[in-house]
Amino acid sequence: MAWSIADVARMSGVTSRTLRHYDDIGLLVPAYTGSNGHRYYGEAELLRLQQILLMRELGLGLRDIATVLERQVDRVAALHAHLRRLAAERDRLDALVRTVRRTIAELEDDKDPDTMEKINNPENLFVGFDTARHEETASEQWPHQAQQSAQFAATLSEADMERMQRAATAAMVRMAELMQAGTPVTDPAVQAEVDAHYQGICRMWTPNAAAFKALGQNYVDDATWRAAYDQVAAGLAEFQRDAMTAYADATLS
Questions:
Q1: Pfam families, alphabetically (predicted)?
Q2: What is the model's pTM?
């Protein structure tokens, strides 16, 4: 049995454009192309796509995925390896959930992130975060901006990083409160929070409208960021993205 590119896109959630890109770079070649020019995929290609998506979830870039697929021989052994990695990622996300919950509890005791003295162990703020993963993604998508960000980060002290993390978590809590109150993303109060978020990013690099929208979408698409937002409040990742899109359209376009 064969499935069209539209069928595969519907089943997998991967866009037809992405599937065509995978074909162009040799990562996922269709079983055959029909006389109508449409791509068709068999069971082997669907299994390969599953592996690609698993590795994407684990943070691998396309070049690394291609290398893994070229080297693998035993498909079942490969799936066992993916399962082990997914279990490790699950454990890391569980640790991240505990980190955010702990920080929220401390912030609720003291609403001022600049004067908060209740955190006995600041290292707990960062348990579960995989910063290297995001640095690699940023380097692929926005290399110049990633370099600027790295240069800025190198100037920060540990105390600076702690203050920034506390402020970021406090901002997430405020956005969650606005969302739960039913405040539209275009409301001045929401947009003021997004503007503060944008200005904070501009300390490292200056995103244009398209890049700021892409960053907001990344908060939804990336499992780690989504977990961080949605453990503050369910749906917060989408709310943040939509608010950033509204800001980009109104202010940056």
A1: MerR_1, TipAS
A2: 0.47
